[in-house]
Amino acid sequence: MGFLKKDSDFSSGEHFSVVSAECYFQGTLSVQGSLRVDGKLEGSVDNARQVIIGEGGKITGDVTAQNVVCGGEVEGNVCAEMVEVLSKAAIKGDIRAQKMIVEEGGRIEGMCKIGGEESVSPKNAKNTDDDK
Fold it and tell me: Are 78 and 61 in contact (CB under 8 A)?
């Protein structure tokens, strides 16, 4: 894992959290740094810088982050500046992002709103068109 290397720069203030393959977490997780999910997370992820869902990882709940890389499963809405859906990933929910990459084989069941004039970020991610 790159962020656990001996020469990692922790002085930058970057925080990393991991839900490992053997872990199950239930509840809202507010993360100021980055999060990697290889286990099961039942609840929302709020305000993360980066969320990485590994191939065996599953999030059942909404995800709000600057960057989301999905290699596993998400059952919930995703709101980020950048969303990357890898080839073995599945997202069941709406996606709202400035940019998105979907690899061949990646599955999305929901509506996607990509780009647009208003910025998508964790700070204003909870605003929807219905709120106007």
Answer: no
Count helices and strands in the chain by DSSP H and E runs:
0, 14
Q: Name the token pair of 11.
A: 């002085």
d(CA 96, CA 111): 8
Which has the closest alpha carbon to 87: 99, 110, 70? 70
**Domain positions in the chain:** 16-116
Residue type present at position 109: E
Q: Which residue(s) pair with 50 in the sheet?
A: 34, 67
Residue 76 has pLDDT above 90, yes or no: yes
pLDDT digits (tens, 9 = 90+) for 89-119: 999 999 999 999 999 999 999 999 999 755 4
